[in-house]
Amino acid sequence: MIVHGGRVTVTELLLHERQARIQELLQQSGRVLAAELAESFGVSEDTIRRDLREMAAAGLCRRVYGGALRAVPEPSPLAERDSERPQAKAALAAVLAELVEPGMTVFLDASSVNTALARLLVERGEAITVVTNTPSIAAILMGSPEIELIMIGGPIDRRVSAAVGARALRDAELLRPDLCVLGACGIAAEIGVTALHLDDAEFKRVIAGRSRIVALAITSDKLGTVAAHDVVPLDDVGVMAVEYDADEAALAPYAASGMKILRAAADRN
After folding, report:
1. Model pTM?
2. Residue 245 belongs to what H/E stretch?
3. Known SUPFAM superfamilies for this protein (predicted)?
4. Could you tell me the domains of the chain?
5. What does the buried/exposed string (b/e) look like for 46-67 if buried means 16 or more CB atoms within 10 Å of the residue's CB?
6. What is the distance, to the nearest Å, from the Cα of residue 31 to the centroid of all Cα atoms in its chain?
7. What is the mean pLDDT of the chain?
8. What's 77's DSSP letter?
9. 139, 109, 135, 134: which is closest to 122 by C-alpha?
10. What is the pLDDT of residue 77?
């Protein structure tokens, strides 16, 4: 909002209020359409498109054809996320664990659901190989003598709590996991899977391309959201685990892409 001579013009105030309302709508529904906004606010679609461009430049949304999607906020560190909603994440991990069979090679990247999955795999004690680029997950997996652990190397990117640089990419290109379980910053039917940081997105894309099955665990707040960098399109995802109360209509475009949707058990706590 621009101030002229210490005063805010009516036009600028309306602009600020309109964009604030658009942001509210994005938080509520995950997406907005320019045509509907123009009709609702009584302005032209060009005006709405300018609003969305400004909001996208500020990181408040990501523009798509005909409108915009909710942007993904910067997450808290992995160690903090591991303690948030532990029952819900354990339920998602339990669904994903059903995909793991003895003798498999499984890749786990940095996500709080994968932390829970690593604990579950240690409890099961099956003879599998697990590859990870995340030190905290590797430390958990060290607790099972039956699990062969492969650690992807290189410098740790503190933003994602994992190795995602050039050395990690070289290591990934030598692997062919049976199952790759990725953490996703966002997923949207129009865009696919996205990540907040470029190096992380590139690493995820490479390891996904080397894997027989790509699986995701998506908490409901990530459905319909978009981060800055593309990872893979929906067609590349074989399985998506969702929370027990995920909206059926919201899941429809993902099921239509061919991926298998696995719904976690209800949280009884």
Report:
1. 0.78
2. none
3. NagB/RpiA/CoA transferase-like, Winged helix' DNA-binding domain
4. 15-71 (1.10.10.10), 78-263 (3.40.50.1360)
5. ebbbebbeebbeeebbbbbeeb
6. 16
7. 88
8. P
9. 139
10. 67
Residue with tokens 């590139």: 202
The structure tokens listed for 148 are: 């062969």
For residue 40, give every residue at least 6 positions away whose Cβ sits within 8 Å of its Cβ, in sequence order, or none. none
- Per-residue tokens: 230: 């593309």
83-99 residues labelled b (16+ CB within 10 A) or e (exposed): eeeeebbbbbbbbbbeb
Measured CA to CA, the distance from residue 20 to residue 32 in angstroms comes to: 13
Structure tokens at 58: 């500020």
On whether the CB atoms of residues 109 and 182 are closer than 8 A, the answer is: yes
φ, ψ for residue 131, nearest 5 deg = -110, 135
Please name the amino acid found at residue 243.
E
pLDDT tens per residue, range 210-239: 999 999 999 988 888 888 899 999 999 999
Q: What is the rounded CA–CA span in Å between residue 256 and residue 251? A: 9
